[in-house]
Amino acid sequence: MTAIQAGGLTKRYGGQTVVDTVDLQVEPGRVHALLGPNGSGKTTTVRMLATLLRPDAGSARIAGYDIARETTEVKKRIGSVGQFHAVDPRLTGLENLTMFGRMNGLPARQARTHAGELLERFDLGAAADRLARDYSGGMRRRLDIVAAMVVRPAVLFLDEPTTALDPRSRNQIYGYIKDFVKEGTTVLLTTQYLDEADRLADSVTILDSGRVIATGTPHELTASIGGGLDLIADPRRRHEIDSVLTGFGGIAAPPGDTADETEKTAPLSYSFPGAEIPLLPILRALEEAGIEVHDIGRRRATLDDAFLALTGPTARTHR
Known about the structure:
Main location: membrane
Structural class: alpha/beta
Low-confidence stretches: 315-319
Number of strands: 14
Domain ABC transporter: 4-234
Order of helices and strands: EEEHEEHEHHHEHEHEEHEHEEHEH
Shape: globular
Organism: Nocardia flavorosea
Membrane topology: Peripheral membrane protein
Protein name: ATP-binding cassette domain-containing protein
Oligomer: single chain
């Protein structure tokens, strides 16, 4: 039985179609990543699948149950972690998880015992009796995810679960997700970190303007991309470098969050979808433009390259 099956899923607000005939299929015990630029319909799609929004057209089944006609059965089989904290900051970690257990039908004593066991398992046992408002950002996010797993769901929806977390907290959550999948839970993940999708996902769907524009494994999506080119040069001449590289079919990756154009050298990256990278002609063109290159090299295509090639160079921010 397919864990998630959607056909023609559509949602409109006023005269605008935000999700447009989306088809989706996820096999049990897999991680499927849903990617796309801002406003591409990712969160709306997840909210429909989680029975929080009713589709205007199309249908979907979760663990064999119809999201519109068998909503109660679907809710019994899913867990959901949204972009914002769901736990009550006025309660302790133990009280939060006990409450979620009671909401899912566990008797009071069993809910409290199970809550304690989960806190220990997910390295929150020492903070069990602390108020959630006193948790760090990473601890609260872990508590959110554990709350969704109080009654282990068949399908877990994770909407940008690691946004704004430090690398250590992100790695902890990656480990939890892998454990959940080993235990049989199917995960539908939206993320703004493409390396996260590359690392975790068995398969990927990319949305743009509410429509599916690509689906496949990370390897299948990157295999269709020619590759990438990384170079170190003066970032103050980036526009000139961009002009040269785009003339050879390159797509510039936007500067990173820590880009500093006062520096004399900086790494710059370009994608070359579906084409060989003409390295020597590029070097000659840069030299003719008077641009000094301190280092340059080809690299294998990444999911970032595939995303840029499919959605365009302005779509690097894709929350």
